[in-house]
Description:
Blueprint: H1 13-16, H2 23-33, E1 41-44, H3 47-50, H4 52-56, E2 60-64, E3 80-81, H5 87-90
Amino acid sequence: MGIRPLFSVVLISEEVGIKKPDARIFRMGLEKFEVTAPEAIFVGDNPALDVAGPMAVGIRAIWLNWRGSELPVEVSCPERITSIDQVVGLCVR
């Protein structure tokens, strides 16, 4: 996609050998970004992979529901957005 140069840190599960929703990959992200869990936000479009993992380590998880899907009953996600543009407004608390 050509967006890698826009980020100071990129963490790819295939490269580190840990896949979401394993909490270890989210802890690794915290270490690489040098932030604590309460300082972090994780936005993802797959509720099963992108919500439970970050929440397990105390990271604020936001579900990007750009497809208009229903949240699976086994997944709890208090924050939802429908467009990536909405992330900026959520980053300020």
